[in-house]
Amino acid sequence: MSFRLTYATMYNPPEAMHERFEAALARVEAGLGAQHRLFIDGVDRDAPRYALRHSPFDRELRLGEFGLADDNDVQTAMCAAQAAGPAWRAMPVAERARLLHRVGELLEERVYDIAAAMVLEVGKNRMEALGEAQETVDFFHHYADDFESHAGYDHVLPDDPVTGFASHNASVMRPYGVWVVIAPFNFPLALAGGPVAAALVTGNTVVLKGASDTPWAGRLLADCIRDAGLPPGVFNYLSGAGREIGEALAQHPLTAGITFTGSVPVGRHLMRQMAGGAYPRPCIAEMGGKNPCIVTERADLDRAAAGIVRSAYGMGGQKCSALSRLYVHESVADALIGRLHAQATAIRIGDPRRHENWLGPVVNATAYENYQHHADALRDAGANVLCGGARIGLGSGGRTALARGYYVEPMLAEVPLQHPLWQHEMFLPILTVHRYGDRDEAMRLANDSPMGLTAGFYGGTDEVSWFHEHIEAGVTYANRPQGATTGAWPGYQPFGGWKGSGSSGKAIASFHYLAQYLREQSRTVVE
Length: 527
Description:
single chain; 14 helices
């Protein structure tokens, strides 16, 4: 590409980008309905069963048949990864990095086709899909460069101060073994590709399980890894239900570590499993967020409105970083709410393949039903619904063009503080609002959550340090129109949560991330 896509730069891309996307979409749609196999021990492998998948924006659009792994496939993949481990970890760092860079190059060559597939599979708009595909490219390059720059994290230490002997010391970092990656539906490429790249470059072998709703993205990643020439068994791809295949992977005796992205209950369950057994094993879990934003009376309201709408409603709020709690000073609340109402009601909802539509569907029938449940619960509790709150897709009697998809309206509501949805991660385009009078009270409310992933702030420049000093979140944004709580990018913003949002306190693509895939060995040799 002659231009770079990031969350900061993709708001006004050149027309050539749209032309390339349209061409890729036509290519991908021409191949719909194909059968997609598993990838184990370097070869495509037939699955015992296949599941037909449809698009969330058109339930009559058949995407293809995707393999469902069973316990035998889990066993074969884990044994292949275990067998491939010694040669892979013995490979020079520069050679592993070269292969990872090659994966990144292939992803970039296919970035439009992969993005088109994600539009069809996930229902995100083309810019979100292209951004995710390019972000995955950057993960592979970033982690390869980062690991090489640290020389594999090996350090020569001072000799022991003893006489008559030469006692040489070193600290070396060694891979754990077979690393399991369990990816979510909302970023099925980036949140698979990122941890896969990290585990591989540090010398671990990998078994990846894609989300049940979005198995295609993981298969496309597997294609790039296969074509990059990684040795058989180093990377393996399975798809299937988390309660079956995910559980079998977590319980497998060869599993040395897990990276999981998903819900708090599942993440905590995996953490308990990995802490048990014969000895504790690492579990890197990113478990969602209930992300707040504070707007003071000194905020630029136009900038705030732009960032709030993008973070609350982008991809239907189906992001762990999505904004869901807004605290606005009472003196500017009416003015800000007016701007938010105008922007939210102007959002074009519809087929995400079309350039003019910004908001596609939610991912499945469960999310669609949950939206109605939450909207009803808010109204029943006396919330002031300022806009949205209706389903406009399947079975809603809504717009004809949307009748075959899981479409819902962006919802904005002033909600009593005692309502339980202030604490519940809805993963939907629902933003709750509260007017505050005292800034410290707004901060207390913002921190009143067991999760602490992202947080936003709009106010005076001399108020930013107060925000950073007191907010309990791993990723913070101040006065950012591109997104109040969303939009981290490899090499620019590390991404990781505090409190219940993360298990390690270390952020994706940070200075500290890769070391989590390694364990330290102290070596002393006496001559």
